[in-house]
Predict the structure.
Amino acid sequence: MALLEIHELVKHFPITNSRTVVQAVNGVNFAVEKGETLALVGESGSGKTTIGRCVLGLIKPTAGQILFQGRRIGGKHNVRSRGLRGKMQLVFQEPAESLDPRRHIRDTLEEPLRALVISSKGRDKRIEDVIRRVGLSRKMLEQYPAELSIGQQQRVGIARAIVTQPELIVLDEPTSALDPTARAEIIDLLIELQKSLGTAYLFISHDLNTVRYISKRVAVMYLGMIVEEGTSEQIFSKPRHPYAVGLMSSVLLPNPNLNQPSVINLIGEIPSPIDLPKGCYLAGRCPLVEDRCRTKMPALREVADGHTVFCYNYEKIAASAETIDYFEQFQAEAEKILSLR
Ligand SMILES: Nc1ncnc2c1ncn2[C@@H]1O[C@H](COP(=O)(O)OP(=O)(O)OP(=O)(O)O)[C@@H](O)[C@H]1O
Ligand SMILES: [Mg+2]
């Protein structure tokens, strides 16, 4: 049994005074194993946050099931309930907004511990342990968020998440408000914490460079569907879905000397999630489109062990020497950046 299992998750938001709905999540399946990281990547509006909120039990799915440690999430069994006893936590995108400006850091870190049966001495010990683990000094416990830098504030956000010793943390764009140095430091910290604590992460991001380093598995989302999923290695070195390749082609590595060919240019506009096309959602933008793509959604194919894709034409992508060439270059460049840090 995986730590977290998502089965056929659907989430539609009704629109006031209308019979239509926003089809935010359209039949998603995935699992997160104990201690591993799964990244959800995709453009803005692809449904990543909505999945995160469903996982935490903060919103009710339209259909499908979410199991955490084999138990169904929903109703009173959610991230805020005592029933979960701090086993699931959340780290937000904007550290400043997620911390109470009128509270000392110590109070912020103590708050989630109230759901646990733990002595006040035990609480103090945990708080001092986590502040050290996230690389902050003890004197910061007596400070207010405004006295800290944004990177330090995000460290507090992470400390607050780990203080209950959770099994799973949902991280929704945890580094996108940070500058590149603070971003790299936070990613290193998250990797290190996972090694020492064994916490699993559901890592939501549209930053592929970040995802590449932190995730064991990657799920690429497009219009509420996971169009491709695999290990980080499979997705980054042999992507098979035209959308995944398109997304990666648009990644700008922080190196102006890299001559980056555009492998797949996705043309046209993203369809509206209120009025999704009948066949493949990418059909209107895909350079490999055929008639069947416009009429029927392709079935899920397993292209390698643990590597799945929703595309009729995934073999054509694999055959493109230019693509493989490009990704080798991409990877070499990424390794170089990593070794410089
Ligand atoms: N409460 C809501 N009511 C109506 N529509 C919503 C609601 N929340 C999200 N949506 C819509 O659902 C779709 C998915 O949104 P979501 O926030 O999950 O995307 P995302 O992948 O997290 O995007 P981003 O990268 O911008 O954070 C979007 O079309 C969004 O407008
Ligand atoms: Mg989001």
In short: The longest strand covers residues 21-32.
